[in-house]
Design brief:
alpha/beta; 9 strands; globular; disordered N terminus
């Protein structure tokens, strides 16, 4: 009986230790990569601590999930660097009552971070396989306030507009007019603008009294904003 107990403990210990290590890695990620660089929005920091990033990367990259870099997720797409996810989240000042549109679901990680804070997230993914995987992943993780739409995100999602904020996670050579129109009065949009093959500029777009103001935030490098061929 003692032998069986020791064997059972041997079998389960590596898994529990691994789970604990990931929690420690998330804490380290938040403290060293995010908070130390000036992210102070409490809800963003809490969400980054809670969302299990290693569940949003391909199995072969699990050990790199909390590294200070983007990671490939297939189909020419990436999961953004943790700091960038946190920065973009903080900039739009998400609130518990907000409805947010995300363009570029990818693995679903940014949507999950937002879903920890806001009331509803609509996220659009043009790559069908990524859209299916993200839908299944988010459902299994209990994010019932996230809806994944498999479509071209250039035209936004007019049937659910206006949005308190819009987060675009792919580089566009210009700001899509439809997204501007679907932004609520007082709303904020964050989007990388520039050539998809060079360094882009992360832009903040704000709508105030029917007028737009734009601010250049930082140089970034995102994957291209993919459009439908139809």
């Amino acid at each position: 009986m003692k032998y069986l107990y020791v064997l059972f403990a041997f079998l389960i210990l590596p898994w529990s230790t691994q789970a604990q290590d990931y929690k420690q890695e998330r804490e380290k990620m938040v403290s060293e990569q995010i908070a130390r660089r000036g992210i102070k929005h409490v809800q963003t920091l809490d969400a980054m601590r809670k969302v299990e990033r290693h569940l949003f990367v391909p199995p072969g990259n699990t050990r790199m999930a909390y590294a200070d870099s983007p990671l490939a997720i297939g189909y020419g797409q990436t999961i953004s660097q943790p700091y960038i996810v946190a920065y973009m989240t903080q900039i739009i000042e998400p609130k518990s009552t907000h409805k947010i549109l995300e363009i570029g679901t990818g693995s679903g990680y940014q949507a999950a971070v937002l879903a920890e804070i806001v009331d509803k997230v609509y996220t659009i993914e043009i790559v069908p396989e990524l859209g299916e995987t993200a839908t299944d992943r988010l459902r299994k993780l209990g994010y019932d306030n996230v809806e994944v739409i498999k479509a071209d995100g250039y035209n936004g999602l007019e049937e659910h507009a206006p949005f308190d904020a819009i987060v675009v996670t792919a580089a566009s050579e210009h700001i899509p007019p439809s997204l501007i129109q679907q932004l609520k009065e007082g709303g904020k949009m964050i989007i990388p603008v520039g050539s998809p093959f060079l360094v882009q500029t992360l832009m903040l777009v704000e709508k105030k009294k029917g007028k737009l103001s734009t601010s250049s935030l930082m140089p970034v490098r995102f994957v291209p904003f993919t459009r439908s061929r139809e």
